[in-house]
Amino acid sequence: xxxxxxxxxxxxxxxxxxxxxxxxxxxxxxxxxxxxxxxxxxxxxxxxxxxxxxxxxxxxxxxxxxxxxxxxxxxxxxxxxxxxxxxxxxxxxxxxxxxxxxxxxxxxxxxxxxxxxxxxxxxxxxxxxxxxxxxxxxxxxxxxxxxxxxxxxxxxxxxxxxxxxxxxxxxxxxxxxxxxxxxxxxxxxxxxxxxxxxxxxxxxxxxxxxxxxxxxxxxxxxxxxxxxxxxxxxxxxxxxxxxxxxxxxxxxxxxxxxxxxxxxxxxxxxxxxxxxxxxxxxxxxxxxxxxxxxxxxxxxxxxxxxxxxxxxxxxxxxxxxxxxxxx
Amino acid sequence: xxxxxxxxxxxxxxxxxxxxxxxxxxxxxxxxxxxxxxxxxxxxxxxxxxxxxxxxxxxxxxxxxxxxxxxxxxxxxxxxxxxxxxxxxxxxxxxxxxxxxxxxxxxxxxxxxxxxxxxxxxxxxxxxxxxxxxxxxxxxxxxxxxxxxxxxxxxxxxxxxxxxxxxxxxxxx
Lengths: 327, 173
Ligand SMILES: Cc1cc2nc3c(=O)[nH]c(=O)nc-3n(C[C@H](O)[C@H](O)[C@H](O)COP(=O)(O)OP(=O)(O)OC[C@H]3O[C@@H](n4cnc5c(N)ncnc54)[C@H](O)[C@@H]3O)c2cc1C
Ligand code: FES
Ligand code: FES
Fold this sequence. Notes:
The structure holds two protein chains of two kinds.
Chain A: E1 5-8, H1 12-20, E2 25-28, H2 34-39, E3 47-50, E4 59-62, E5 65-69, H3 74-79, H4 81-86, H5 88-95, H6 100-105, H7 108-113, H8 119-122, H9 138-141, H10 164-170, E6 174-179, E7 182-187, H11 188-191, E8 210-217, E9 225-230, E10 241-250, E11 253-262, E12 269-270, H12 272-278, H13 285-295, H14 307-326
Parallel strand pairs in A: 1-3, 2-3
Antiparallel strand pairs in A: 4-5, 5-8, 6-7, 6-8, 9-10, 10-11, 11-12
Helix pairs in contact in A: 5-10, 12-13, 13-14
Chain B: H1 2-10, E1 20-26, E2 29-35, H2 41-48, E3 67-70, E4 73-76, E5 89-91, H3 104-111, H4 121-134, H5 140-146, H6 157-170
Parallel strand pairs in B: 1-5
Antiparallel strand pairs in B: 1-2, 3-4, 3-5
Helix pairs in contact in B: 3-6
The structure holds flavin-adenine dinucleotide and FE2/S2 (inorganic) cluster (FES) (2 copies).
Residues 115-121, 152, 154, 156 of chain B line the site of one FE2/S2 (inorganic) cluster.
């Protein structure tokens, strides 16, 4: 690790002030991504501002929806009875993430800000436009079995690794942010950026802006939601393909539907076109097949990740079928 | 101690960094340290305090060999900065027994021969201690899932699961 200075913030204002004026400063939450990447010299902040004492860990469910503080731990959010009952896709996505030890440390804000697991990004000495803008992309000619089939550019096709973000984007979550200029809200679908020709610009946050929480609006579909994650081993692994779905079925007909994919996109991938075809159609296999085909219609796979197109299609069908039949 | 700090965290040729005062309460005993902020909790325990139960496997949160309990919750000490654990209570495998009296989980590990090389055992025991408190798992399948942060899959693994299942079934922890 490079040397850095360490300070603790006790409130959001102090934390923001400490990071805003210094482009080499970073917030420290659970540290499970930041400390890891600092050991690898991928991230080299010279000042860490520990925000763990900032009181932002509340989880509140109300008539309007769910409000999760940015410093709530993944394990606590997953175990929250209101979350598990009203927003099962969130609890399931969290429980399918990382390990119990990591979930005890990792926070909701940090989860949304985690960096890609692309090995060329994490490994010093490889070309990576995300880590070193302009250096190229070693994955294009190298190992890219785990890479994205949606949202890629010639400069980068690394996947976004968060499971939680996939569940949240399906439920129209909004990220609450505070910075030197005040507060703002960013819909999660606009929070993460497509790589384009600036893959190192990953999200809408400005230097010094602190995520204070995530709001999930109440909806009819959230209660009938689920997360299906397919990975190389049964537990403790990032997604090859995952799907967050939510369904509202009335009299055998689909009234509302949400579909988002993980493991296949350069950002958490919501698919409104696939949702649209299901509305007003019967909650049946033919509808789910139609939606799943549209979900992967824009896929642009390369050699090693071509299998993800069919896998993603099947994961969507499976998620919708099991969701549609259990509720 | 200063010399150790520089060697373990700074490495050769890096400027000496400013140390931070850190108090760690390890297995009930308070320790006041002056640490380079780069020192992880794992390094603080092993190198600075000589508490060598927690092991370094992957150093990246992936193997669970470094698992300890911080304020009662299991965490990976390799990804936690020691300064971030300031003032907290840390329990390592050394703190699970009452003196020479092993706890039921430790007894079960011995009974089931739940270690092959033994390297992962301290992390397994800390993790299993937390798992019993969390009360989330009793069947072998659930135990495998909730112990998945401890990556050992050597020949001892079935015995580890059996030992935990036995104590979980007794329900006295
Ligand atoms: C072995 C392993 C397996 C994993 N498996 C999965 C998995 O299957 N699925 C999954 O989704 N994740 C997985 N993770 C990733 C893990 O979920 C993230 O590391 C974690 O959520 C990050 O949260 P944190 O609080 O530790 O963030 P930190 O490491 O503290 O911070 C990460 C980044 O976010 C910034 N940040 C933190 N909080 C805020 C805030 N409030 N406002 C603004 N910026 C902030 C930090 O400055 C830093 O840049 C895994 C991690 C490991 C090590
Ligand atoms: S050494 Fe910490 S998880 Fe492997
Ligand atoms: S006993 Fe050696 S790794 Fe588990």
